[in-house]
Specification:
This protein has 318 residues and is α/β, with parallel strands linked by helices. It contains eleven helices and 13 strands. Strand 11 (245-251) and strand 12 form a beta hairpin. The longest helix has 17 residues, at 12-28.
Length: 318
């Protein structure tokens, strides 16, 4: 293949990710010319509402997918956690990059960690998953929505609009922004389970054999298995809009450990499950885990969670 066009969002982190993929492909295909097609997504345009209220995951992928389906790009680089579980016809999730640090990160100019926050402290996050888990351990905290790119969020923190904010650790690390915040504390993933796909990149391609061969060099087998398990779990449970779902699969040479949590945004009701299974039996573990939680009432709980999250505003279908 002589030329490859990569579709990407234009945010600082998205461009870092696209450059990373470009550099990896250049190692494998030094003669191939690689260009970027920068796309502005709906999620980048609407900054005054929580993502869950305007459609959730597809907000960061739809415009990119439209560009690919129009023949303007061969391959897209996404944060895997933003990728819906169903692909549009003509496109395929072809590769999952090696997973980085999965943890969320506590950031503050005044306090060392979650435990150090005073009663009633204001914490910024728009993630229902983070809200659920924060309120489960610190119900006294005030949760305030937080939108904008990474630098905007950090500016709001520095200006005192929040006592602390929670972001993905890997994004802060990749952009070299951790040292600009006096207190940054990665949160143990046993305390705050991450979302499906966190810290991996999803490589989406047009349905083309030549492009598929190119994308294959980016795939990490263990990360792909973890991603499949997590996405199977979410796909079995997910409603019409984003709901508080946390799931993480850890792949070891001989076994796979999966932890999952669903509940109400206020943290008052939560279902948790853990499955530890031989790797050879892990292929359908995401579906099996979801079925166990559905039997325990997860679907009904998530319906109540959605009603609670959107009780003051209508959930706009995307």
């Amino acid at each position: 293949m002589e030329k490859l066009i990569i579709a990407t969002r234009g945010s600082q982190l998205a461009l870092w990710q696209a450059e990373y993929v470009k550099s990896e492909l250049e190692k494998a295909f030094p003669e191939m010319k690689i260009e970027f097609e920068v796309v502005t997504s709906t999620g980048d345009k609407i900054l005054d509402k929580p993502l869950a209220l305007i459609g959730g995951k597809g907000l960061f992928t739809k415009e990119i997918e439209d560009v690919m389906l129009a023949g303007k790009a061969h391959l897209a680089v996404h944060s895997l956690k933003d990728v819906p579980t169903h692909m549009p016809e003509g496109l395929t999730l072809a590769a999952i990059t090696k997973r980085d640090d999965i943890r969320d990160c506590f950031l503050s100019h005044k306090y060392k960690n979650i435990e150090d926050l005073p009663e009633g402290a204001v914490v910024g996050t728009t993630s229902l998953r983070r809200q659920m888990q924060l309120r489960a351990i610190r119900p006294d905290l005030k949760i305030k929505n937080l939108r904008g790119n990474v630098n905007t969020r950090l500016r709001k923190l520095a200006e005192g609009e929040y006592d602390a904010i929670i972001l993905a650790y890997v994004g802060m690390k990749r952009l070299g922004l951790l040292e600009g915040v006096p207190y940054h504390d990665p949160i143990d993933d046993n305390v705050m389970i991450p979302p499906s796909g966190q810290a991996s990149l999803g490589i989406e391609i047009i349905d083309d054999e030549e492009v598929a061969k190119v994308a294959a060099v980016l795939n990490d087998e263990d990360s792909a298995l973890a991603a499949k398990i997590e996405r199977d779990f979410v796909g079995r449970l997910e409603g019409s809009c984003q709901v508080p779902i946390a799931v993480n699969a850890k792949v070891f040479p001989d076994r796979v450990l999966v932890r999952a949590m669903v509940g109400l945004p206020d943290g008052t009701e939560i279902l948790k499950e853990v499955i530890d299974t031989p790797r050879a039996e892990a292929e359908d573990i995401g579906v099996r885990l979801a079925d166990i939680m559905i039997e325990a009432g997860a679907k009904e709980l998530l319906q109540r969670a959605e009603a609670m999250a959107f009780k003051e505003e209508r959930c706009e279908r995307f």
